[in-house]
Amino acid sequence: MAKCSICDKGAHFGNNVSHSHRRSNRMWKSNIKSVKAVVDGTPKKIYVCTNCLKSGKVERA
Fold this sequence. Notes:
Layout: E1 12-17, E2 23-28, E3 32-39, E4 42-49, H1 50-55
Antiparallel strand pairs: 1-2, 3-4
């Protein structure tokens, strides 16, 4: 679910690194919003990242 319908941006994975340099897995989640947007001329609910909303790639309904 947490993937942008426009640019396919999703979660990123990496490591938490402590002061003693021990590593554990972590995840960065993209800022995804549920938005009512115009898709092929009809209003539809899609998941869009805030980057795409801000840049005007999505026409809201």
